[in-house]
Design a protein that fits this description.
CATH architecture: Beta Barrel
Low-confidence stretches: 1-8
Shape: globular
Mean pLDDT: 92
Order of helices and strands: EEEEEEEEHHEEHEEEH
Length: about 350
């Protein structure tokens, strides 16, 4: 039974409907409800199995520039998980329920431009192509927290993947340090002069600029995916940042995939960091402007390792990083309808 369909008289402490703006009961998720948008500032890199008869390569590297809408709605801020501690007599049994904040999200992504190497002859897709849809939930565990894990993200991907990632939230003044992550495939000699990494070297030497014609724009380099997030922060005065960091490899987390995915290109893990930025700059209503940046890393396993390491010393397949980054802004006008 959903939170909204329960008899409210049975649970008088429960809160339903729209949240109050900046409702402290929502904890680190309090700024999420609303509509966030990005036009052409999203970038994606993914390696895909590819049959290329005349080429020694058995994969293609696909880069996308994209538009994004990310919509968050409150489901409930006191979802109860039931539990008791059974104590030995004469100590009474204690009720130890957990209360969870639940935020629904819908992510829709539309391609602006794409390029791949080796050239697939059109498989990269045309501008305007809907390339991703993802419904999911963000959770904030308000009490009974285990190992400091106070947040979780549940995601469902139309390819046939279901994700549970756990993590911790934090709030600090100013902006955040963007991580510099190695995004070359694991299980391959990591030298850009390695012929097997030719697509990575190609886009490292000539980063993908999509539709951006500004001569000062550095482009999207698949070997330095942090650069465009750092560039988006230049000249922006961030007063406070809320960080939501989750990882599917934390115990009890994980990814479940349909059989074809497991056999052909298994999604083995997902890590993501979301930075909610409160800016010094004000919107038309005198409130701090809000931005949302994220870095997401999904590891895909396919094809035997090529680095010459002996069998049994490490996983037997190459692990390919799939990276998505974006900088979004909260839509002030649309956002009004998400709050009471």
């Amino acid at each position: 039974m959903s939170a909204q369909s329960e008899d409210k008289t049975k649970y008088p402490w429960r809160k339903y409907g729209k949240p109050q703006k900046n409702d402290m009961e929502l904890g680190p998720l309090k700024l999420l409800p609303g509509l966030w948008k990005s036009e052409g500032r999203g970038w994606n890199m993914i390696a895909l199995p590819f049959s290329t008869a005349p080429s020694p390569l058995d994969y293609r590297l696909l880069l996308n520039q994209y538009n994004e809408q990310l919509e968050f709605k409150l489901v409930d801020d006191d979802v109860p998980n039931r539990g008791v501690d059974k104590n030995p007599p004469p100590t009474p049994t204690a009720q130890t329920d957990q209360l969870v904040v639940t935020i629904d999200y819908q992510q829709t992504i539309q391609q602006v431009a794409a390029v791949d190497s080796p050239d697939s002859g059109g498989l990269a897709g045309a501008p305007g192509l809907p390339i991703h849809h993802e419904p999911g939930l963000w959770l904030h565990m308000k009490n009974q927290v285990t190992d400091g894990l106070d947040i979780a993200r549940l995601a469902t991907i139309p390819h046939g993947d279901s994700v549970l990632a756990l993590g911790a939230s934090s709030v600090h003044d100013g902006t955040s340090c963007i991580p510099h992550v190695n995004t070359l495939p694991e299980g391959v000699t990591q030298d850009l002069n390695n012929p097997y990494l030719r697509p990575y070297k190609q886009f490292h030497d000539n980063p993908f600029k999509g539709t951006i014609n500004n001569p000062n724009f550095p482009g999207f380099d698949p070997t330095a995916t942090h650069v465009l997030l750092e560039l988006a922060n230049k000249g922006v005065e961030v007063v406070r940042t809320t960080t939501l960091s989750v990882d599917s490899t934390i115990p009890t987390g994980g990814i479940a995939n349909i059989p074809f995915i497991v056999r052909k290109a298994n999604a083995a893990s997902m890590k993501s960091i979301f930075w909610i930025q409160e800016l010094k700059e004000k919107d038309k209503y005198g409130e701090p402007k809000l931005r949302l940046q994220y870095f997401q890393l999904v590891m895909l396993d396919f094809f035997p390792r090529r680095d010459g390491l002996p069998p049994g010393c490490c996983p037997g397949l190459i692990r390919w990083p799939h990276v998505s980054i974006n900088t979004l802004e909260k839509d002030v006008e649309e956002g009004k309808k998400y709050y009471a």
